From TrEMBL:
Name the record gives this protein: Dehydrogenase/reductase SDR family member 7B
Keywords, ordered alphabetically: Membrane, NAD, NADP, Oxidoreductase, Transmembrane, Transmembrane helix
NCBIfam families linked: PRK06181.1
Bilayer-spanning residue ranges: 6-26, 273-293
GO annotation (BP), single: lipid metabolic process
Keyword NADP annotated: yes
Organism annotation: Mastacembelus armatus (zig-zag eel)
Molecular-function annotations in GO: oxidoreductase activity, acting on the CH-OH group of donors, NAD or NADP as acceptor
Length: 310
């Protein structure tokens, strides 16, 4: 081993790593495709990250179709955006809205038709809407596990499958999904959420490979904590609303910064993007490279919570 690493191997390895890192930085700095006039559909646009994505894509000159369940809040956002210019030479457009519940598969199919009627095509579908969950598996009703899966997994895949044929026909389009760090690692007391995001990651990884032949990229974005109402809107084991702004969420990333990360990832047609501070990113590597230690840490974190609640 000494002989292998001796005689100039270390500088060679360091130089190769340096070139690789420089390449990654340059790739990240490239501006990527323009979104002027592109038709961008955003689900969960009524609040949080979706709302900020709407602002970012609107300023980039996209023609938006904003989706959510609350028509009033979507209209408020349309009003706000139509009064805002991009602040650049780019032309901006007044967004359209489509109101539907992602957890209701039948209404998703009808909504996809409505979405296509807005501009006749979809260039970028941003599957952003989602709900979170807080609870102990032993006390969680199976229906709650199913409900979270309906919104976070079956909702986005139904909408994607309903819109895909039109993208395939045009040999053009881009499918984006907002997953989570919890789509890559599972932390205790988040079973329904982590399971739905793991399923999401797997489905869209399969989709990426299957539709590459049509020139349609798939981007999976995995953010860490973002300062939104996600924890407030989360469901608990009996289906009631959690209603608490968790500390981790309150000190999370600014949703405007995450939205800029989403915009960049779309422009650069990136495949898999983690938008998080170093600790969660490190945890993903730990889960892969040293699972025994990762499981110990998760069990210890569960014990700490159990002691606090005892
Ligand atoms: N905040 C975080 O820490 C964090 C971290 C990683 C990933 N994420 C992901 O980021 C995405 C956006 O969440 P957020 O943080 O912005 O939370 P949020 O403020 O609670 O927004 C969630 C959005 O999803 C929509 N939505 C929820 N259930 C829906 C349903 N059944 N049908 C249609 N729309 C529905 C909500 O719209 P209405 O209630 O108005 O219908 C709302 O616009 C989610 O996929 C979440 O998992 C968030």
């Amino acid at each position: 081993m000494e002989r292998v690493l001796g005689a100039g191997m270390v500088p060679l390895i360091l130089a190769t790593m340096g070139v690789f890192m420089l390449y990654r930085i340059l790739v990240r700095l490239r501006p990527g495709a323009t979104l002027q006039d592109s038709v961008v559909v955003i689900t969960g646009a009524s609040s949080g990250l979706g709302r900020e994505c709407a602002r970012a894509f609107h300023a980039a000159g996209a023609r938006l179709v904003l989706c959510g369940r609350d028509a009033g809040r979507l209209q408020q956002l349309v009003q706000e955006l139509s009064e805002t210019s991009s602040g650049t030479q780019l032309q901006t457009y007044t967004p359209s809205t489509v109101v539907f519940d992602l957890a209701d598969t039948a209404s998703v199919v009808t909504a996809a038709e409505e979405i296509l009627k807005c501009y006749g095509q979809v260039d970028v579908l941003v599957n952003n809407a989602g709900i979170s969950y807080r609870g102990n598996i032993l006390d969680t009703h199976l229906l709650v596990q199913r409900d979270v899966m309906e919104t976070n997994y079956f909702g986005p895949i139904s909408l994607t499958q309903a819109l895909l044929p039109s993208m395939v026909r045009r040999r053009s389009g881009h499918v984006v999904v907002i997953s989570s760090i919890q789509g890559k690692i599972a932390i205790p007391y988040r079973s329904a959420y982590a399971a739905s995001k793991h399923a999401t990651q797997a489905y869209f990884d399969c989709l990426r490979a299957e539709i590459e032949q049509y020139g349609i990229p798939v981007t999976v974005i995995s953010p860490g904590y973002i300062r939104t109402n996600l924890s407030v809107n989360a469901v608990t084991g009996d289906g009631s609303k959690y209603g608490v702004l968790d500390k981790t969420t309150a000190v999370g990333w600014d949703p405007r910064d995450v939205a800029q990360g989403v915009l960049r990832a779309v422009r650069q047609k990136r495949k898999d993007v983690v938008l998080a501070s170093p600790l969660p990113s490190l945890a993903i590597y730990l889960r892969t490279l040293w699972p025994a230690l990762f499981f110990k840490l998760m069990a210890s974190s569960a014990r700490t919570k159990q002691k606090k609640e005892a």
